[in-house]
Each structure stands twice: as structure tokens, then as C-alpha cells.
Design brief:
The two termini are about 35 Å apart. The protein is an alpha+beta fold and about 625 residues long. It contains 20 helices and 16 strands. Bound molecules: 2-acetamido-2-deoxy-beta-D-glucopyranose (12 copies). One 2-acetamido-2-deoxy-beta-D-glucopyranose (NAG) binds next to loops. One 2-acetamido-2-deoxy-beta-D-glucopyranose binds next to helix 14. It catalyses: a 1-acyl-sn-glycero-3-phosphocholine + H2O = sn-glycerol 3-phosphocholine + a fatty acid + H(+). It is an enzyme of class 3 (hydrolase). Its EC number is 3.1.1.5.
Length: about 625
Amino acid sequence: MNIFNLSVLKLLLVGILWQELYSHPSAQILPNEQGLMQPHAEHTITVKSSSLHSKALPDAPDQYTPQSLVCPIDSPFIRNGSTLSTNETEWLEKRRNFTVDAMIQFFARLDLGSLNASSYIEKNAANASALPVIGIAASGGGYRALMNGGGALQAFDSRTVNSSLPGHLGGILQSATYLTGLSGGSWLVGSMYLNNFTDITSLRDSGNVWMFQNSIFVGPTESDDFDVRTFEYFSQIQDAVTGKYIVGYNTSITDYWGRALAYQLINATEGGISYTWSSISTSTDFQSGAIPMPIIVADGRAPGEVLIPDNTTVFEFNPWELGTSNPPLQAFAPLQFLGSKYSTGKLLTDEECVWGFDNAGFIMGTSSSLFNQAFLKINDTDAPDAIKNSLNRILGSIGEANQDIAVYEPNPFYLYNSQSEYAKSTVLSLVDGGEDLQNIPLEPLLQPQRKLDVIIALDSSADTSTRWPNGTAMVATYQRSLSSLGKDSGITFPSVPDQNTFINLGLNKNPTFFGCNSSNMSDSAPLIIYIPNSPYIYQSNVSTFELEYDTPERDLIIENGYNVATMANATINSDWPTCLVCAILSRSLERTDTAIPEKCTICFQRYCWDGTTNHTDPGDYYPSYKVPQG
Ligand SMILES: *[C@@H]1O[C@H](CO)[C@@H](O)[C@H](O)[C@H]1NC(C)=O
Ligand SMILES: *[C@@H]1O[C@H](CO)[C@@H](O)[C@H](O)[C@H]1NC(C)=O
Ligand SMILES: *[C@@H]1O[C@H](CO)[C@@H](O)[C@H](O)[C@H]1NC(C)=O
Ligand SMILES: *[C@@H]1O[C@H](CO)[C@@H](O)[C@H](O)[C@H]1NC(C)=O
Ligand SMILES: *[C@@H]1O[C@H](CO)[C@@H](O)[C@H](O)[C@H]1NC(C)=O
Ligand SMILES: *[C@@H]1O[C@H](CO)[C@@H](O)[C@H](O)[C@H]1NC(C)=O
Ligand SMILES: *[C@@H]1O[C@H](CO)[C@@H](O)[C@H](O)[C@H]1NC(C)=O
Ligand SMILES: *[C@@H]1O[C@H](CO)[C@@H](O)[C@H](O)[C@H]1NC(C)=O
Ligand SMILES: *[C@@H]1O[C@H](CO)[C@@H](O)[C@H](O)[C@H]1NC(C)=O
Ligand SMILES: *[C@@H]1O[C@H](CO)[C@@H](O)[C@H](O)[C@H]1NC(C)=O
Ligand SMILES: *[C@@H]1O[C@H](CO)[C@@H](O)[C@H](O)[C@H]1NC(C)=O
Ligand SMILES: *[C@@H]1O[C@H](CO)[C@@H](O)[C@H](O)[C@H]1NC(C)=O
């Protein structure tokens, strides 16, 4: 993979930096594994009452160290993943009214000719099955994906200043039911939800998070509120991970990576060390249905596997659960009690419930575990011995081929069923959600029970040798939908062409609709609005493993992302906002037998892939600016 060559140079530079930082003798006093990393004992152990929480909360009982506590009255158990959870079905009912209101407002700004889209929604508001269900998926690709995807979410968010002007798209985020993220996309989704669903502009301008000028090898030295010296930063990380290890949990490099990452993303001391992913489910705005449901994706690595096959089991972290809808495992575990000891789907007798294992940074680190690589190179530097020793201990026990795993032990699915490999081991290994090449987190949105009509797929992948998308993620998901695993999972996906065609037809540089003609498909797959990263005002094809950006560059990539989503505020094509709404409404109009307005027909002629192909090798791909540069 050529991306790594670039990172080697980067890491050499990092090495020099390390030498500078740690040639000082005082570096030796960093606490080591056997030394100073006492769990933080001052926290009182009480069972929390979730009804009082108002936002994603630092609700772990002992920071990064999971703790066994009395179980709530209902003992947690593993459930069959062939249906939605009751938490989700109940939540969906509440979410609906919010999306209805948001669609009415957003659609009112657009002219679809013969159809009044706002009053169409109003008319069908009481009929759940008639209404469109919208998902947004933010791909992986490191900080590039966070920034490019972030620009798109900024454009889709009605809270963004000027986002309801003509040519803008504010309101799509409020109209969506689901928002998924994977790897770098999980950093984006996590940043929003762990900071009280804050908007992208606030994240960008916060002065505490998204400070990408401070690399993870340095820590938040320039944060307005959480400034710590690099040395202290590393001792905090070491203390946290060792605390978890000491009470008996196996740790992996992902624990270190996730801790470091969180300092960039969570607006709280020590990178939000006590924030759990499950605490999102207790936030007021989420519980009331006022904001979309966030889902993060990771891939399973079955025992004994090293490479991730295309038919691997795809896991999701939603606010309530970790699990998969893929057979043969097809099971979900309560997220809040991850780390508890289950067997055959039940909590072992006399076991207490473990709280605080689902640390939010650890979950985002899991989805992006490919970046564990970066941490391993610390060995080649003058980094503190404590960190090096810990990483080497982990490597010694798991082997180099498993550098990228996140260890979930005890495995909640142990002996849950007899068919799945994942149920045979006491360890569940998860890896970066993009390792199966499905770099856009579509899988949770293709679950038939979720009944999505349309998915906005934000693709920030670095597929071509010049690091632009070429449709590889779409091809991977399409092929998976045709495999026996895809069929057994009930997944349907519109057909997409090969990568050469994506480039030759420009499908990888203009927004493209796939699955426009649903009668072509045996089942009702959602329509996919594919929005690839493309240079509008900035060459945003920065390297996946570039982990440091100065503020002007960060802001330009976010602004480019805004332009990618809006087609430069509809200056490339003034019909773009209308066409997006046509795509959003398409499946619903079919269901309610409503005539497609002429305007939409024109849109579909322009934006739908027409089924043609051109398999010629396109050669090197160097797209030019879409907005002429002066
Ligand atoms: C889950 O439910 C499905 C559908 O009822 C069933 O076919 C499957 O065997 C169940 N899985 C387990 C592990 O019980
Ligand atoms: C999920 O639903 C179950 C059953 O209705 C309920 O006991 C539990 O509290 C819910 N979980 C959360 C986090 O709301
Ligand atoms: C949604 O709005 C309808 C009126 O349009 C109302 O009858 C219903 O109770 C609302 N549902 C929820 C869950 O608030
Ligand atoms: C669409 O219908 C709404 C009422 O539902 C009305 O306020 C609005 O003016 C209509 N828009 C157009 C363009 O006719
Ligand atoms: C609700 O919409 C569906 C189409 O999805 C339609 O078949 C059904 O008749 C509608 N129900 C009512 C009560 O209008
Ligand atoms: C979270 O955001 C909501 C809605 O914007 C706001 O009402 C609430 O006060 C915020 N909560 C905290 C703790 O900041
Ligand atoms: C970060 O937290 C501070 C308070 O500690 C708050 O004032 C600020 O709005 C937060 N920023 C974001 C982006 O959430
Ligand atoms: C790091 O160095 C130690 C001792 O010098 C060695 O045992 C270990 O294999 C090295 N690890 C990596 C990842 O290179
Ligand atoms: C498309 O991307 C894949 C994945 O990076 C790569 O192997 C392939 O060579 C690319 N093809 C073209 C034509 O860019
Ligand atoms: C994945 O494919 C391999 C090879 O074709 C097959 O042996 C394995 O059973 C498949 N796994 C699943 C979960 O379908
Ligand atoms: C589109 O609008 C955004 C936000 O208002 C702005 O940052 C961007 O520069 C505009 N795009 C162009 C091409 O003018
Ligand atoms: C197919 O793509 C190649 C490479 O981009 C191009 O030169 C050729 O003109 C295309 N063929 C057709 C029929 O469009």
C-alpha cells in the first residue's frame, strides 16, 4: 500500500521530534506498568440513574478502568439480531415527527414544479410507511475523511449560518434518521455526539478539539482549556491503559491509540476519559428523538484469521448495543455492560455487571484500528520506556499479524450459538471498519428491518494512486450484497460498475445516484446518493496517514467538503438541491403512487448512473479544480 511509504517519511520526522523531547533525563520518571498507575480510587461506586443525564456524559464509574457493580434489576443478556431492538423501534417512533418537521421546512425552499414536496410530507405525516427514511454515511480515510465529511455535515446542518440560503442544503441532517461513521468517519460522528451534538463550525472553532496542528505524538499542548505538556499527556495515557490491564482486562494497541485520539475529539479533560459511547443513549436530545441515531462500524476478525475476507462479519456500535445482523452470529450485546462475563447469551451466575468498558475513545479507536501502526513506530524513537514496554508486551502476546486488533475480552457472544466462529472464543477481536474494503459504513443502513429509502454516501476514500475515490467501497458493498452472506443477511444494494468506469464516466467526481430504477431490482434496495471527495477549491486528497494539519489547511479541506456536498452552493448546477430532494423522495413517491414531477425526471437523467460502462484503464487520475482558481 503506497500510503504507508509516505507515512514512513512522516514517522522519521516524528522520531526526530521524540528524540528532542525525550533526550532529557527526566523522561525516565514516566510511570511504568508496575509503578504508579493506581486505578483512580476516589470515585464513589454507585449505580447510575440514567434518567438524569442531559448529554453524552462522563458516566464511567472509574474513568478508563471498567468496574463490576451491582446489576440493574433486569440482568443483561445477548439478543437475537434478526430484529431491531425495542430501544430502537421505540426511538424511531419519536424520531419520526422531528424528521417530518425538518423535511417540511427544508423542502419548502425548493421548487419541484408539479409537486409541492412540503405539502406532500405534511399530507403523509401520519403514515409512517409512506415517509422517506434517510441515512447519511461518512467513510473512512483518516483526518481527510473527518474534514471532508465534516464539510458535508456542516452543509447539511440547518444550524450552520447561511445554510438555508438558495443553493445551500441545511436541513438534511435534521431530516435524517441515521448517521453512520467508520474509521476517520467515526471520529467525525463521535466528535459531534460526544460533545452534545455540537455543530461542525463549533468543533472547528472550539480551540479545544480538532486542533490538528498538535499531532497525537505531542498531545493537546495548545488547547485553550486542556493544555497539557507532552510528557504528562503520555503518562495520562499510560495510567489509563494500565489501570484497565491491572484489574484483569487484556489490552491492545488500540487502547493506546483510542486514548490518544480522544484528546483530539472530546472536549473534556484527559480526552474525555470517562465518556462512554452508551451514554449517548441517555442524552436528552437523543432520547427525545431530536437528533439522528449515530452508528459506528468495525469489522470482525474471526479467531485464527489474519486478513479480513470480504465476507467478514460487520459489527456496529449503536447507542444501546454492540453486535451484528450478519448470520451466523446475528446477535447484539448491551453496550453499557460490555466487559461483563456472558456464556450462552446469559450473564454467568454470580457475575456482576461491568460498567465503563465502552469508553468512547476506545470505540472510535476500534473503528480506526488501522492507525495502530502509527503507535508501533514509537518503538523506533526515544519515547518513554513505559509506553514502549507496554506496547511490546502486547505485541509479544498477540503477534505482529494482530497489531491492528482491538481486544474485546470477555467476548459477550461466547457460546451464544454453535454456528459462528465468533462464539467459540472467549476473545472478540475487532478491527478497522474499512479493512473489508467497504470503506463507506453502509452495512447497518442496508439492514432490511431499518427500511431505509435513501443513503447519502460521503466517500473520502483514497483509492487511486493520487488518493481520490474510485468507487472501490461501492463495488465492495455491491459484491457483498450478491454473496451468500449478503443474501443471508437480507442485504440489497443497487448495481454499480467497476472502478475504471467510475473514473471514465466521472462518477467519482460528480455526485451520482445509484438504484434510480427500483423496478430493476428484485428487492427494494435504497437509492444511493454517492458524493465523492473532489477538488472544488482545494486539493483535498491529503494522505490518510498524515496526522498533522495546520489550521488554514484544515479549514480549506472542510470548506472544500462543504462545496463537494453543495456542488459549490449549486453554482455548478443550480438544480442540484432540487435533484437531491427528488432522490430523497423517489422511493416514497413510488410507494404512494405519486407521479414523478417533470423536474425530477430531468434530475434523474442527469444524476442517475445510466448503466453504461467503459472498462478502459483510465491511467493516472488528476482531477482539475471544479471552481476555477483565480
Ligand atoms: C435468530 O432468529 C432467527 C429468526 O427467527 C432464527 O432463524 C435464528 O436461528 C435465531 N438465532 C439464534 C442464535 O437463536
Ligand atoms: C432499552 O430498552 C430496555 C427494554 O425496554 C430498557 O430496559 C432499557 O433501559 C433501554 N436502554 C436504554 C439505554 O434506554
Ligand atoms: C407525532 O405527531 C403526531 C401529529 O402529527 C401526533 O399525533 C403524535 O402523537 C406525535 N408522536 C410523537 C411520538 O410525538
Ligand atoms: C406548498 O404548500 C405549502 C403548504 O403546505 C404552502 O405554504 C406553500 O406555499 C406551497 N409552495 C408552493 C411553491 O406552492
Ligand atoms: C400508508 O402508505 C402506504 C404506502 O407506503 C399505503 O399503502 C397505505 O395505504 C397508507 N395508509 C394510509 C392509512 O393511508
Ligand atoms: C446540549 O444541547 C442542547 C440543545 O442544543 C441544549 O439545550 C443543552 O443545554 C446542551 N447541554 C449541555 C449540557 O450543554
Ligand atoms: C467545550 O467545552 C466548553 C466548556 O468546557 C464549552 O464552553 C464549549 O462550548 C465546548 N465546545 C464544544 C465545541 O463543544
Ligand atoms: C521494539 O524493540 C524491542 C526491544 O528493543 C523489540 O523486542 C521489539 O520487537 C520491537 N518492537 C517493534 C514493533 O519493532
Ligand atoms: C481503484 O482503487 C483500488 C483500491 O485502492 C485500486 O486497487 C485500483 O487500482 C484503483 N483503480 C483505478 C483505476 O484507480
Ligand atoms: C466466507 O467465505 C469463505 C470462503 O469462500 C467461506 O469458507 C466462509 O464460510 C464464508 N464465511 C461466511 C461467514 O459466510
Ligand atoms: C459556499 O458557501 C460556503 C458557506 O457559506 C462558503 O464557505 C463557500 O466558499 C461557498 N462556495 C463557493 C464556491 O463560493
Ligand atoms: C473510455 O475511457 C477512455 C479513457 O478515459 C476514453 O479515452 C474513451 O474515449 C472512453 N470511451 C468511450 C466510448 O467513451
